[in-house]
Amino acid sequence: MGITVQNITGNTAMVIWPKMAGCVDSFYSIMYHPNWNSMLSSYSRKNFQKEERVPTTRSSFVVENLIPLTTYIMCVTCQSANPSSDQCRVFNTLERDPASTSNTKKELALGIWLTSSVLLLIITAVLLYGCLHLLCRRRRERLQEQNRTSKQEHREPWTKSMACTSEEFSRQGQQTQDTEEKHPGGIQLATIIENPSVHSEPIMLSPKSRERVPTTGQCFAI
């Protein structure tokens, strides 16, 4: 078939074959295998690792994803049958392509950059959430402190008023006690404002009552 392999690199190779008018199938089968040993392997389809099918309108194909520095055998047939030796070629791939190595490094650097960016965004979001939570807690504590202060300020006048009332009650109780001590007989005097229309007649008091009640022009009841 006059098969040739061109443009060999570390990962790709182009195979070219002449068109055959007698090929009755609608596709060409391209089979290849690494580390081929013709003494131990036969030209059977099952012995090939990879197989590609291309339309019969084409006469070339670029094989990709090859292993650098590896010996390959490649065969092309126009039917789904086992190839013969005149339909195969053996070639060696080169070292890894510098452009491919550069692309791999770029992809690795891009992956590292994307991972670092995602981690940085996560850390920033966590720190921002922590700061907002801390600010909200401090603000809530400040409001609670202000509420406690205002309650204490409202409570102080009421406490003072209660203290004054208690002191007044104590003073009145002390005065009542002093009055009872001055009157050991337990006689309490009530002052009634004189009403001229009621007290029209003079009240006759006993001699004992006259000693205790002064005559001031008012009406006293014992």
UniProtKB/TrEMBL annotation:
It comes from the Eukaryota. Residues 144-158 have a biased composition (Basic and acidic residues). The chain crosses the membrane at residues 110-132. Signal peptide: none annotated. InterPro entries: FN3_dom, FN3_sf, Ig-like_fold. Keywords: Membrane, Transmembrane, Transmembrane helix. Residues 1-96 form the Fibronectin type-III domain. Residues 144-183 are annotated as: Disordered. CDD domains: FN3. This is FNDC9 protein.
